Amino acid sequence: MAANPRRQSLVLLALCAVNLVLTVAALYNYDFFPLIVYVVPMLFASVMLQFRPFALTVLLQVCCVAVVMASLEQTPTRAVVCVVLAAIAAMLLTVSARVKVGLPGSLGESMIIDLRDRLLAQGELPALPASWYAQSALRSADGAQFAGDFMVASRAPGSDQLEVVMVDVSGKGLSAGTRALQLSGAFGGLLGALPADEFLGAANGYLLRQDWIEGFATAAHMVIDLETGNFEVRTAGHPPGLQWIAGSKTWISLPSDGPALGLIEDARFKAATGSIGSGDALLLYTDGLVESPSQDYRLGIDKLINEAERMLASGIDNGASRLLSRIGTTHDDRALLVLHRR
């Protein structure tokens, strides 16, 4: 539902009309239309209207209630109903006024969900040549709506260069999710706009300027030439990328390291270089797949490698989703990218 002025005006007019109809009905037959029925349009107004039009609706209802009460014999029960209506109105007005984004519940939720969908959309992989297959997958901790893990991918039209950054923001849940929304927009602007060897340095500087209490994130940045298969992977406090060498049927860990983003000024990030040939594959992932309170991350990487071999043996299609369903803890955000050259 969009919070545009025209829709707000139409909703306000409709609710005013409903209140006037209820007032006429109460004056005609109070037994069938007691004062308590005003709660229904009041609740609708609190959900559908912004604060100012909602306050106008409440003011109109006060006038309507006063008219009805003036036409009736005053009783203790009717006085109690008026007090209850006033308490409900005060509570709803307070809640509506405290909504920082200026939107009622449903509209605010719609905006946040739209931001989350935009975050996920930035992680969608661009179209690749027929000789390449790629899939990414993301799962949030405990099925939450927001995750601190995200991925941004970029490929300029007509270019053979694919660039991907996978990020794990410190924390989890809503607090990590809101920081992930901000970082995804910033990193999306940097990706493809800077030389590959400058991206993590620029991202590190951006996080340092935010001065967040939990102001760090880990990242893996990959750039690959889809024509030659040559690639560079740089990591910042992130688990190492894994490459499958089809010729020797072995997995190798890509020797790249660097500090997490947002901790050290002028940090340097070493690149791991290589080439993906026919049948080879590359995995980027976040620590939710390989770490848990009861398991060392090295054991987690070994388990990931074993499951990845099974995945390759049974077919690469939908590989990222299958791997994500088999490994990692559900109590942490998890993200995975599978890139394969046919």
UniProtKB/TrEMBL annotation:
<feature type="transmembrane region" description="Helical">
    <location>
        <begin position="54"/>
        <end position="72"/>
    </location>
</feature>
<dbReference type="Pfam" id="PF07228">
    <property type="entry name" value="SpoIIE"/>
</dbReference>
<dbReference type="GO" id="GO:0016791">
    <property type="term" value="F:phosphatase activity"/>
</dbReference>
<dbReference type="InterPro" id="IPR052016">
    <property type="entry name" value="Bact_Sigma-Reg"/>
</dbReference>
<keyword id="KW-1133">Transmembrane helix</keyword>
<keyword id="KW-0812">Transmembrane</keyword>
<keyword id="KW-0472">Membrane</keyword>
<feature type="domain" description="PPM-type phosphatase">
    <location>
        <begin position="131"/>
        <end position="341"/>
    </location>
</feature>
<dbReference type="InterPro" id="IPR036457">
    <property type="entry name" value="PPM-type-like_dom_sf"/>
</dbReference>
<keyword id="KW-0378">Hydrolase</keyword>
<protein>
    <submittedName>
        <fullName>Serine/threonine-protein phosphatase</fullName>
    </submittedName>
</protein>
<feature type="transmembrane region" description="Helical">
    <location>
        <begin position="78"/>
        <end position="97"/>
    </location>
</feature>
<dbReference type="InterPro" id="IPR001932">
    <property type="entry name" value="PPM-type_phosphatase-like_dom"/>
</dbReference>
